[in-house]
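Q: Convert this sequence to structure tokens.
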Amino acid sequence: MTTEDRPVVTIEHGPLTIRSSRQEDEHVVALYGELDLGGVEAVQDEMRRVEQTNSGRIIVDLSALEFMDSTGLRTMLQIQARSRTNGNRVVFLRGGPVVQRLFEITGTDDRLPFID
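A:
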């Protein structure tokens, strides 16, 4: 079974759940719960796996995150940095008020390509 054949991959890692799914040329990596130091490696691993596919667009869905700390923020910036060198395929679906506030107070909200 290839990566493209899997309809949904679910990864539970403490207070973080990652759901990764592909539909045609678009891959969505949705994050649920809390993203902190304990979960960033799982997010990085899944994103690296998805980045190796031939998906034309990768959406990192932050809308169901309830909390994200500075290590989660750094992870999002690293994902975007890799995307810039690999065809700019990654976009970010905005998080809720708590998560978006982290981007705003750190001045990084304009460094990521957000979609609504």
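The two ends are 33 Å apart (CA to CA).
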